[in-house]
Design brief:
Layout: H1 21-45, H2 50-55, H3 66-75, H4 80-112, H5 118-130, H6 133-146, H7 153-157, H8 164-177, H9 180-188, H10 193-204, H11 206-221, H12 225-230, H13 239-247, H14 256-277, H15 279-289
Length: 292
């Protein structure tokens, strides 16, 4: 005669061990440490000189040499790091603003305008989201080669203006935040579609547009493979590609170690600042887009 092991019934509303508040906080703490520790290592390492890299621990502070590292960083190769900063700003800031405007216009049109093939166009856009950007590098290179744009600013700038995921988000934001009744009233008053978009649709999509701008900015700022394929002139490199080129010399020339670490720290600061300054807007935009 077998005896079944009695099960202990939990009172209604009682969380299990794996869903308790303590367990959730522990998981969040581990995730936060996983994200913050590399940044902390970057900050401490940027203050070290060449000798301290081999004589101190990962998070130990050596002789404070951040000023010397910054001076060496901007003096290396006749100040080429300043070119890299300029290029990154042009690619990421200007590209994010123009690209987000294009995404907003496309998403608004798909959501609020009636035209033949609208559903097919949106389906193709969703398909584009699934294609990894690295798979497009070779076709883009061949196209840029035909147009004689290889090793120019435009070879990197023009492709970043299009983003299928941004169009998808803009379509969701337009559906959630732009009422059809307001658009109909504007059309009855004689406003054209372009004027309606810029004066009514775009302001109503403001929080969602900030989210798209932030996503575009991060994607372009971290864009590495496309500039690697398109560019050979070091004065056209963005910061991440230039720092990578320096990192390949570290084994032969240890003096590049502080330059790579300090340059990487400067490259991270704009991303942290963008998220910190725009956190309220992009969180509101994500919440609005998630309702659709």
């Amino acid at each position: 005669m077998s005896h079944a092991t009695p099960t202990r019934n939990r009172p209604p509303g009682t969380a299990s061990l794996w869903t308790s508040r303590t367990a959730v906080h522990l998981v969040l703490l581990i995730g936060a440490l996983y994200s913050v520790l590399p940044l902390l290592w970057l900050v401490t390492s940027a203050t070290k000189n060449v000798n301290d890299f081999s004589t101190t621990g990962a998070f130990d502070l050596g002789a404070f040499s951040l000023g010397d590292n910054l001076t060496a960083l901007f003096d290396e190769q006749d100040g080429i790091f300043l070119y890299w900063i300029r290029n990154s700003v042009l690619y990421a800031v200007v590209g994010a603003l123009l690209g987000s405007l294009i995404c907003a216009a496309c998403g608004y049109a798909i959501a609020k305008l009636e035209f033949p093939g609208r559903r097919t166009l949106f389906a193709v856009t969703l398909t584009g989201v699934l294609v990894p950007t690295t798979a497009l590098a070779l076709p883009l290179y061949l196209l840029a080669s035909q147009l004689r744009l290889v090793d120019t600013f435009w070879a990197v700038f023009l492709p970043v203006l299009t983003n299928p995921f941004g169009v998808y988000l803009a379509r969701a934001f337009a559906d959630a935040s732009v009422p059809d009744e307001v658009l109909e009233a504007a059309r009855m008053d004689g406003a054209g579609e372009l004027r309606t978009f810029f004066t009514i649709g775009l302001p109503m999509m403001r929080n969602g547009l900030v989210t798209i701008v932030l996503f575009q900015f991060v994607a372009i700022w971290n864009n590495f493979f496309l500039p690697l394929v398109m560019l050979t002139d070091p004065k056209l490199f963005p910061m991440n590609l230039g720092i990578f080129q320096w990192s390949t010399r570290v084994t032969q020339f240890p003096q590049y170690n502080p330059l790579v670490i300090t340059g990487s720290l400067l490259a991270v600061i704009p991303l942290v600042a963008a998220f910190a300054l725009l956190q309220r807007q992009w969180r509101t935009g994500l919440a609005a887009g998630s309702t659709k």
